[in-house]
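Technical appendix A lists one of the benchmark inputs used to test multi-chain prediction within the project. The record comprises two sequence entries:
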Amino acid sequence: MDLNTIWFLLVGVLIAGYAILDGFDLGAGVLHLFTRDERERRVMMNAIGPVWDGNEVWLLTAGGALFAAFPPVYASVFSGFYLAFMLLLVALIFRAISFEFRSKVDSPGWRRCWDVAFGVGSAVPALLYGVAVGNVLRGLDMDASGVTTTLVGLLNPFALLIGLLGVAMFVLHGATYLGLKTDGALQDRMRHWASAAWVAFIALYAVSTVASYAVAPYLFENWFSNPLTWVFFAVLLASCVAGPAAVRASRFGRGFVASAAATLSIIALAAEGMYPRLVPARPDVANSLTIYNASSTPRTLTVMLVIALVGMPLVILYTVLIYRAFRGKTVLTADSY
Amino acid sequence: MDVVLLSRIQFALTVGFHFLFPPLTIGLAWLLVVIEWRGWRRGDPTWVRMGRFFGKILALTFAVGVATGVVMEFEFGTNWAAYSKFVGDIFGAPLAAEGVLAFFLESGFLGLYLFGRGRISKGAHWFSILMVAIGATISAFWILVANSWQQTPAGYVVQNGRAELTSFSAAVFNPSMLPRFFHTMDAALIAGAFVVAGVAAYLVRRNHEDELARRALSLAIVFGLVTSLVELFPSGHLHARQVAHTQPEKFAAIEGLYSSQSAAPMVLFAYPVTPPPELKAKVEIRGLLSWMAFGSINAPIRGITAFPPENRPPLWLTFVSFHNMVVLGLYFIAAMAWGAWQLHRRRLWESRRYLMLLIFSIPLPLAACQLGWMAAEVGRQPWIVYGLLRTSDAVSKNVPAGDVLFSLVLFGLLYLLLGALYVYLLVREIRHGPPGPEPVPA
């Protein structure tokens, strides 16, 4: 395996890590919009309170790694999605501050404002990530100056479909996580949400796969030629069978593993379909940015690999330890938000 | 409007606003390492309550720092695509390293620090604030590596239309890296000391018997005096010397040296006007600048007119920001020295006017940070990478000016709201005061 492929994998791992970890935060944020009770809202926020910030770091690191390993991709995609990106950043800012700000003033009006900020600040990214992935899979209009798609152009039917798939995935994952962290009536509702979201997720995934045959046929060339497809697909299938069953039986630990595995496998499938392209170009896919024509020098990729190999095992080690410290049902204390 | 200008204003706004929070976070985190250590090792409830109180201020500050920091990670790509393509091979690595080696550490352990009390042992709780402080410091290191490389690029070769890495260690430890890191880190510690001192001064004024406030004030004054002195010498002196050697145009601009001369004067006060570049109402000490920068009072130094006009940074802003930073730096030493003297004479708690001064001094180190940053960044102009790439050639060519104007207005309004809310909540938290004594566990 060459360095470029290793970095394709590592950026993929960071994106998948983000989708799995911050994915349940975003899902919890969306679900927070559908709860009226103050105590329940606080339980939901505090279920992710101690960990969401560390989870968001996966996004920052993925951004940094993309910049370091594939600068033209970082530059073209981010500038090409300019307005969508600004919208995303504003949403993430509102989500980030709503935790601290909401709890500081004990007034219903103040808290309602921050509830909306938190919910919308989670829902907008949950939708936009899928829209971005949909557009990249579909291919971006490119000329010498970079990506030239407009904001309206980004909101095409295929991208919106993938956006909805993303929302279903995050809600599913968030509801399962909250099932793990809550009990009583709230847990019951999370079970219902998770079950419904599994149905939506499976249906949307099926439609998206059919649609991608029309929109991005190049994906299928890789899928049919690479045996890894069947591994990922088997994992996805197993999750889609085991996940809903686990949720129905209130076994949220298993359900969480299943929704995480489903998230991982659909990202792996998308990445496998794209490889070695990073930004497929429209109308001519031959103009695509790939891991070879858009990479940093081997020296930089090597240095970065050393940093990743030293740093990431440590990160995973203490992340596991931190999650262990917060295991069990969420309890509201004097330190809570 | 011009897309370059709009992008520059947006970057200045977003980075300037963001940069209010990390210095506070770093300074407070290190002070909390001391406070929590005493709370843990001495088992003294006063230190424990102090930790809780300042921990809340840290959490609020950290939240806004994180929220505004996300923007920075992506803004190079959105607004400075040409720059990102040119420097990506070198500049991306420290950003990624900051994520892997620092952000995970500080964010993960901050959650544990804020919410882990009672879930983990007291030692592990102290360890978590230590990791937050170390993480924040490593973060500062890597982002300053990236910034310093823009100022004094090293370890690269320009080929294939971009800067390519030839030596990672030379790129990381480029000529301005270490002086900038120590100067900025120490500035952060001063910012932390003034916040703790100001808040404690407020509490002492409210109740001068308050043991928690007295201890916090003593700690902050000692900490603030040492860090303020170090900021001037050796840190500030070494950083200025480095600028004189590596970026002579910037040095001439910040010091107000407009014509080349030997025995160059240190300008203490002046008002710069252009054109031609000239200082009005000048107060100066002859030969001092030559002596400080090059070790001899007769050493010749190039003035700004020795450089072609297209390579000169803006003169007014660099001179004014740099000199005001120095004035503030001297004030910090004086303020903390006076406090230490009053503490020594055991008259600190009754010095109500001085305590009021400390309260109003809370934002001043942050102002000094902004001014220093302005001198450093505006002084780098017209280059985005000194000597290699001009700022005007660095923007995203596919983003229309209207889009940038829209996002600029959006961030302007959002940050106005954010800043107002932060100050409102901070003042509320401080007025509320430290938590009462902990209930004895049954």
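The first helix of chain B runs from residue 3 to 18. Chain B has a mean pLDDT of 94. Comparable benchmark entries are summarised in Table A2.
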